[in-house]
Amino acid sequence: MNTTNKKKLVLVGNGMAGVRAVEHLLKLAPQAYDITIIGAEPHPNYNRIMLSSVLAGGASLREIVINDWDWYEDNGIRLLAGHRVTDIDSQSKRVFTDQGETVAYDSLILATGSDPFMLPLPGADKEGVIAFRDIKDCEMMMETSKKYKKAIVIGGGLLGLEAARGLLHLGMEVSVVHIHHYLMERQLDETAANMLQSELERQGMKFLLRKNSGTILGKKRVTGLSFTDGTEEAGDLIVMAVGIRPSVGLAREAGIEVNRGIVVNDYMETSVKDVYAVGECAEHRGIAYGLVAPLYEQGAVLAKRLAGVETSGYAGSVTSTKLKVSGVDVFSAGRYDEPPGSRAMRYQDEIDGVYKKIVLQDDKLIGAVLFGDTSDGAQLFSVIKSGESVAGREKELLLGLAPGAKAVSPTERLQAMPDDEIICGCNGVSKGAIGEAILVKGCKSVGEIKACTKASGSCGGCKPLVEGLLAIYAGDDAVVNAKEGICGCTSLDRDEIVAEIKRMALKSIKEVMNVLEWRKPEGCSKCRPSLNYYLGMLWPEEYIDEKESRITNERYHANIQKDGTYSVVPRIYGGVTSPSELKKIAEVAEKFEVPMVKFTGGQRLDLLGVKKEDLPRMWEELDMPSGHAYGKTLRTVKTCVGSTFCRFGTQDSIGMGIRLEREFERLNTPSKVKLAVSGCPRNCAESTIKDFGVVAIDGGWELHVGGNGGVHVRATDLLCVVKTEDEVVEWASAFLQYYRENAQWNERTSNWIERVGIDAVKRALESKEERKALGERIRKTLSLTTDPWKQIVKDDTLRKNFEPLTEPQTV
Ligand SMILES: Cc1cc2nc3c(=O)[nH]c(=O)nc-3n(C[C@H](O)[C@H](O)[C@H](O)COP(=O)(O)OP(=O)(O)OC[C@H]3O[C@@H](n4cnc5c(N)ncnc54)[C@H](O)[C@@H]3O)c2cc1C
Ligand SMILES: NC(=O)c1ccc[n+]([C@@H]2O[C@H](COP(=O)([O-])OP(=O)(O)OC[C@H]3O[C@@H](n4cnc5c(N)ncnc54)[C@H](O)[C@@H]3O)[C@@H](O)[C@H]2O)c1
Ligand code: SF4
Ligand code: FES
């Protein structure tokens, strides 16, 4: 039973369209619903569009998250990530997931997106045959490129070409197999497609046109592809990008009317009461869209409907596309294909590689294709959407020139645009809204405009226009000098903020935001934890840590897992335990029916799958220090057996490791910190991929810093060589405190050292005096730390945080 009187809203599909509708709803009626989002992918909501950029090296997976885990928590949304809804019972109004959850709803939104179409070729189940739809596919391509050389992409549409560009970037040879006689026939005419093909060939892509795929070759893993004309192409990876199908199985099984997509009316209502559909899975007036701009329009209408706000409904969209391949400018909008009764006008400059075509019908512009120079795209698209008469203006539209007029610069064109013209198609942001963000809300950079309006936050195609508007409204200098603040709430960077906090002795997050004129008085999930860290680092004795400003894992002192459970990792110093300690851990694991006990990469025991409400009792019974496996703090000190048992060992690596772990446990750091100690240069504890790595040598220790074994592997830089264990501690103290005082919040030592350079760090630590001062400061901070779980188990108020807030919405 639901303890509040709010209606229960369940969203199936944690993707772009559904979550955008929820974002709108939270703005219109924040208190109207208890919201549960169920998503099959084990990730928070991310920008699928940007997967192409991730593959092409333009963004990291972390950067494409739209709403992080904290967003759900901050908005009181229950998220079931990694749950696939398998059934809907629209009579009893419940949905069921493959993880055994049953969730009741009053209103249900289906936003299940699409499934990539996989050609049913013989051998399509072989290893190395994938689609390109989600993070998993993207990671698979990145992994494959490390081991294999040759990729085949089937499908020369938008997705196939973006995948092929990414694979080229990853160092693979790429052949694109296309069924049609020219590329992107769903967006381009033959002339533009041929120009595109030449450019992509120049970049290294190979094309096999008019090819019908036959059989996927290979034993367990793919080795190539044969075609129906008897030819073959070798390949170690096959990416199928031959279109998508709306994901409608769930709706069909539930008796909801389904055609190609889930059939909806102008209010996104399906044939079943209180069930809505939005996004690629929905079919509106016979069309299932496959681009975000129309899906976001649908989301805005649905949110109004759910909030009880009047809306004239969704009337369908004209779409435009832009290929996201660097070095190639291609734009297509509306009826590029010259339907009967239309006429086309073309301009081609073969020297500069520019091609433009506009399609007209009854004096109206109905379509456009641009290659080589797409700067007129936004304007043409807006004329298409307006449906206005363009009689007499055709040449101007094609060439950007009024008859007899001088050439119009992009700035002049932007200036002349009406305020209601859409600049960012992906997010539906008009010129007027961007102007307001700059002039009224004081945005000073593209990043701030993005934070304020979302413009440029998806495909990024509109970024030049946003920059152009910034220059017009705030002056050219604004673009040149525009520096990005730590987030969209401020234009100040980390160093400026820390300097101001020191100079004005600011002592709370609220005070910092007030005095430094934060744009959003409550801040955001990026600046609040940063300020909390900087204040704690600067004023260890006075500043009271603001728990609400910590990221979710640090608030609960446990790692949240993809199914919403938590993990318990007790501290085991240096990775050395005892039979009695192991027995105790085993007993607690058994008593609380912990589904999995696992050794971590840092030599600790991880009890996984723990319910939030069991955490305090488990820690009470364990009676061990927290392993801090969840925080931006010292995680583990990994050790090898060293001279205690190993015949190669020159020093006591276990003793050194335990000493370091006891010295620095509980330390707050800008990002997580991992240490390791190896007993000889064979380096069995992998010290040279740790933040601070110690390697024993004859008569001393090498100290290495800035290593990382994660996504971007980085080997350490040698900081210095010392003789004694005390010196190891002295240098570790100085290094860690210097990192605490100088790095940005959330910056690993590897990124920080890459940014500032190892020489700068060496110089800063070379004076004994300075090391001493840094050591004193770190010891002061360490003396004030306490074990979070020891506190929680003793304090009833703190324990209450772990009780379920409302009764679960399961029945
Ligand atoms: C690589 C790539 C690049 C793209 N580039 C562009 C671009 O530049 N411009 C553009 O406009 N569009 C682009 N698109 C298309 C755009 O990403 C989609 O149109 C958009 O993501 C669709 O949003 P959606 O919410 O309908 O579906 P999705 O974002 O696919 O979300 C649906 C979610 O529902 C989940 N789901 C499905 N069934 C269930 C179930 N039964 N239970 C629980 N969860 C379920 C899925 O796992 C998925 O996470 C691109 C797509 C890809 C793959
Ligand atoms: N920049 C962007 O806007 C962008 C980028 C990527 C994806 N997307 C969207 O994602 C969705 C999927 O993209 P897509 O490119 O897969 O779909 P698509 O339908 O646009 O293109 C598929 C292409 O595959 C070709 N094809 C079909 N069967 C084939 C076969 N047997 N052999 C070889 N080629 C074959 C088709 O001729 C077509 O050109 C679309 O909705 C697209 O709009 C958009
Ligand atoms: S690093 Fe050297 S001392 Fe340590 S286990 Fe390996 S070989 Fe033995
Ligand atoms: S047009 Fe895609 S982000 Fe603006």
From TrEMBL:
Gene3D superfamilies: 3.30.390.30, BFD-like [2Fe-2S]-binding domain, FAD/NAD(P)-binding domain, Sulfite Reductase Hemoprotein, domain 1, Sulfite Reductase Hemoprotein,Domain 2. InterPro entries: BFD-like_2Fe2S-bd_dom, BFD-like_2Fe2S-bd_dom_sf, FAD/NAD-bd_sf, FAD/NAD-binding_dom, FAD/NAD-linked_Rdtase_dimer_sf, NasD-like, NiRdtase/SiRdtase_haem-b_fer, Nit/Sulf_reduc_fer-like_dom_sf. Its cofactor is FAD; [4Fe-4S] cluster; siroheme; [2Fe-2S] cluster. Residues 561-623 form the Nitrite/Sulfite reductase ferredoxin-like domain. PROSITE patterns: NIR_SIR (PS00365). Residues 631-771 form the Nitrite/sulphite reductase 4Fe-4S domain. CDD domains: NirB_Fer2_BFD-like_1 (cd19943), NirB_Fer2_BFD-like_2 (cd19944). Residues 320-387 form the NADH-rubredoxin oxidoreductase C-terminal domain. Keywords: 2Fe-2S, 4Fe-4S, FAD, Flavoprotein, Heme, Iron, Iron-sulfur, Metal-binding, Nitrate assimilation, Oxidoreductase. This is Nitrite reductase large subunit NirB. It comes from Cohnella boryungensis.
